[in-house]
């Protein structure tokens, strides 16, 4: 059983850059029931344009008869600040002006996204998270949370993510923002502003999410005579239009900047020292042919998080494999969690 909720934080929400948002809202969904001991919480952090319905966008890993089953677990997925899906975002009404924020919305970081979810967890009375899991932007949130509240996260699962966003990743995001900014309507103060630019940005993003092999498998022409109207061209257009029907350019713009901000070493001794403070039982999973978050980034995480377990998988879908290869992920994560329980039992016996 699932339910959708809206948490209203009545106080001023202070961002990492010192700016403030008044009375933020966080939209979230829950699946299953919190048990009496409140130790069955699975918290999923979503990626760039996803919503709070994790049973929909992570099918095969979350859902009835899946590894994370709402019959057994209390599953929470909350949309981040800036998201198009219900949380306070650039299309929200600015209480000071009575008009939508648009480009007057303050910039925010991954840590700000985590802070919002920490407030939600506090509101729900959740003191312990059994499993915190996220991929891509969601993994960036999960790693930050595990550093910020090292005693709260029992098991941490990081998929296709990094400790800091790379120059390569930032360059891809900037290219997408350049595409959005060429659309004059982006500056027109209207909800559908920048959609033509967003369509182009999505086309750029897809090239970083997928692989040469994936396009050859799905978009290769069956005839040799074409000189125009290629399947790959139609696919890029279709995917761009599909996003424009469900998302807005302003949220995309700001969330891409938040991704760029990700660096667990900021304001701390170093990136490595920050990772060393993680106390969670940690699993890191990388995708061998991930073009956007290369395997070396997950190897770095696993090397410097104490006791972390590392697995790599191969997927023709590249970065998007973290959403698609759910059978492989179920096997790896399921075994990891079983071992985690066994370690806990052994530890209890030793202290008894």
UniProtKB/TrEMBL annotation:
Protein's pathway: Amino-acid biosynthesis; L-methionine biosynthesis via de novo pathway; O-acetyl-L-homoserine from L-homoserine: step 1/1
Principal localisation: cytoplasm
Keywords, comma-separated and alphabetical: Acyltransferase, Amino-acid biosynthesis, Cytoplasm, Methionine biosynthesis, Transferase
A GO term from the CC aspect: cytoplasm
Domain AB hydrolase-1: 45-323
One of the GO BP terms on file: methionine biosynthetic process
Gene: metXA
Enzyme Commission number, as recorded: 2.3.1.31
UniProt: substrate binding residues: 202, 320
Family annotation (InterPro entries): AB_hydrolase_1, AB_hydrolase_fold, HAT_MetX-like
EC category: transferase
Subunit comment: Homodimer.
NCBIfam families xrefs: homoserO_Ac_trn (TIGR01392)
Name of the molecule in the record: Homoserine O-acetyltransferase
Family (UniProt): Belongs to the AB hydrolase superfamily. MetX family.
Function per UniProt: Transfers an acetyl group from acetyl-CoA to L-homoserine, forming acetyl-L-homoserine.
């Amino acid at each position: 059983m699932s339910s959708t909720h809206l948490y209203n934080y009545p106080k001023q929400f202070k961002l990492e850059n010192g700016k403030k948002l008044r009375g933020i809202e966080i939209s979230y969904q829950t699946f299953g029931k919190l048990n009496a001991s409140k130790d069955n919480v699975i918290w999923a952090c979503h990626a760039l344009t996803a919503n709070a319905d994790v049973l929909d966008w992570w099918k095969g890993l979350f859902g009835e008869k899946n590894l994370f089953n709402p019959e057994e677990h209390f599953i929470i997925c909350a949309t981040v600040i800036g998201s198009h899906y219900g949380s306070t975002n650039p299309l929200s009404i600015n209480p000071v002006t009575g008009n939508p924020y648009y480009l007057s919305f303050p910039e925010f970081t991954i840590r700000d996204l985590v802070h919002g979810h920490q407030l939600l967890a506090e509101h729900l009375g959740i003191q312990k998270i059994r499993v915190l899991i996220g991929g891509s932007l969601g993994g960036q949130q999960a790693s930050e949370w595990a550093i910020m509240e090292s005693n709260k996260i029992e098991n941490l699962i990081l998929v296709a993510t990094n400790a800091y966003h790379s120059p390569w990743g930032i360059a891809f995001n900037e290219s997408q923002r350049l595409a959005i900014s060429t659309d004059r309507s982006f500056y027109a103060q209207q909800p559908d502003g920048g959609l033509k630019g967003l369509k182009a940005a999505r086309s750029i993003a897809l090239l970083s999410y997928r692989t040469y092999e994936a396009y050859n498998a799905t978009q290769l022409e069956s005839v040799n005579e074409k000189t125009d109207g290629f399947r790959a061209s139609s696919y890029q257009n279709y995917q761009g239009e599909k996003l424009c029907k469900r998302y807005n350019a302003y949220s995309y713009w700001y969330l891409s900047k938040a991704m760029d901000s990700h660096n667990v070493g900021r304001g701390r001794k170093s990136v490595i020292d920050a990772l060393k403070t993680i106390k969670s039982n940690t699993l890191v999973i990388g995708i061998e042919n991930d073009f956007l978050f290369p395997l070396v980034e997950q190897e770095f995480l696993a090397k410097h998080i104490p006791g972390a377990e590392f697995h790599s998988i191969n997927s023709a879908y590249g970065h998007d494999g973290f959403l698609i290869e759910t059978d492989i992920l179920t096997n790896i994560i399921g075994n990891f969690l079983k071992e985690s329980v066994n370690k806990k039992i052994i530890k209890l016996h030793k202290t008894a």
